[in-house]
Amino acid sequence: MTTRLTVAQAIVRFLEQQYVERDGVVTPFFAGCWGIFGHGNVAGIGEALLEGERAADETGERVLRYRQARNEQAMVHAAVGYARHRDRLAAYACTASVGPGSTNMVTGAALATINRIPVLLLPGDVFATRVANPVLQELEDPRSLDVSVNDCLRPVSRFWDRIIRPEQLPQSLMSAMRVLTDPAETGAVTLALPQDVQAEAGDWDDDLFVRRVWHVVRQPVAEDALARATALVRDAERPLVVAGGGVLYADASEALRAFAEATGVPVAETQAGKGSLPYDHPQSVGAIGATGTSAADALAADADVVIGVGTRYSDFTTASRTVFAHPDVRFVNLNVASFDAHKLAAASLVGDARVGLHQLTEALAGWRAPEGHTTRATALAREWDDVVQRAYDGGHGPVPAQAEVLGVVNRVTRPQDVVVCAAGSMPGDLHKLWRTRDRKGYHVEYGYSCMGYEIAGGLGVKLATLDAGEDRDVVVLVGDGSYLMMASELVTAVQEGVKLIVVLVQNHGFASIGALSESLGSQRFGTRYRYRTETGLDGETLPVDLAANAASLGVRVASVTDLAGLEKALFEAQAADTTTVIHIETDPLVPAPDSPAWWDVPVAEVSSLESTRAARTAYEKNKARQRGYLSPSDPTRPEGSTDPTGHQ
Ligand SMILES: Cc1ncc(C[n+]2csc(CCOP(=O)(O)OP(=O)(O)O)c2C)c(N)n1
Ligand SMILES: [Mg+2]
To answer: How many CA atoms, within 13 angstroms, populate the side-chain half-sphere of residue 524?
Structure first.
């Protein structure tokens, strides 16, 4: 049997029937479709979504619900926030018109792919028939009429296709689903849809539209690989776990806790992995790397075996390959993605984090890290927590320090509430200072660290909590720079009746890049929001009123000047039904407690500036500490084997 539908109608009908199963729990994969309409999708995907909603009004059946966004980049961020909070087991589609609507999604797609979060992008594309070309917003590449702006989405998508014939669609949809639901492959998936093809009808095999379940299997680690890794760990004197986002997506926190408690190995966390253990677990040593705690970074410096679980070892995590300083450090990497498992010349364990941790725990039965190592880790973590408390209680005035603001927000929010952030000076401060009490409590996008993710991503997180039936406030922390880049989805939150608590930290510019600039000899050049004078951008502070700006978008606004006011406003925001933006000024020149680690940002090799020359000297010193981490994880050659190259 076949059904006659347009390509767009077939896509919508197909997406509605996709389910995912993990651990025996079956849930719908698509929560809905974000979209902004233009001539490239209004009569294609737009018509199909409308038809779907009308049909559902009659039948009451589940549909791909349409959500209206203000900005295409933001809608992809919202989709990512949603999927990340749902452990990648649910996602959104995003439809955009041809041209600028589609290219606006490029940044969101890159963010999704880098963070390994599923999102299905459905950009409109230029006419497949080319009869009426150039269509409004068409690129027109004189070298090939086959190119459109949607080709920009190729490098940032894990699967990319352009449907120029209806017959191509079923295979592409199946490939899209395979990638979206595969934890090792997932990211942005793009199906570019020429505007004429969207509206073209085909006779579709009804099997395309039957309910389909995609199984997310928990791949066990191969026994021989496990044996190699176990041998390394058993020899370790100062092992350290680095927990990444994979621990959270695999819902492996309990398995990690069991591993840590059975073996005594301390656990450090990356940005994406923060919350893998509660901050006050005796073996939790907190943030690692360039934004790390003194505890985690001291343990990393001495670690002889590093057990990375679900981490991709970004330069922040490794402090640009300096944080692991033991001359013979070896790595054991448990990761569902072979690409990540093999990083740093590790003994690789390719598999699911939860199953793999269970396997490792069992294989190491009876073994424990030296007692002194575990107790040292606990003592170092306590010392760091005292540093955190002092930062929370900083007593700066009249304008408070950012760390004090974080302290108040941490104290007033409930353990299950989610803090959302992405760029500026707050992610680093949060990584070091935030006391995470729930595995879902910390949502900082630091794979792409994209200014503008905060509010849009937070909206997606809140929608995810509502769909999951969870009672969580979502607290978005956003700097003035990020706010100015993309506050647009506050309007969407108002429209959808979704409640966010946004803490807008006003420090009149880029405190983060200002501090970085100063440390690199660049004198905070171009990082403050100041009037232009004859000598540059060094006049009075600009008269922006972001509280008034937020109020104009239809949200509740509280403008506070001190920590007591912040606390009161947070309580009121908690009690409110609608979105609140709390505006507070902080002093950009009060830094949070410093991390001992380095981050590689190259400094000019020659310069007429004394500040730059001094910074270059310091840079070269740090550069000399940088390691390749190339030592084979298995340095002993099996007996009887010969090296064909003749090298020893
Ligand atoms: C889209 C984007 N552009 C540029 C950057 C580089 N960048 C990182 S932080 C930052 C400044 C952020 O300013 P603000 O949100 O006010 O936070 P603050 O640094 O003041 O804490 C910039 C420009 C980025 N991360 N994302
Ligand atoms: Mg700022």
So the answer is: 14
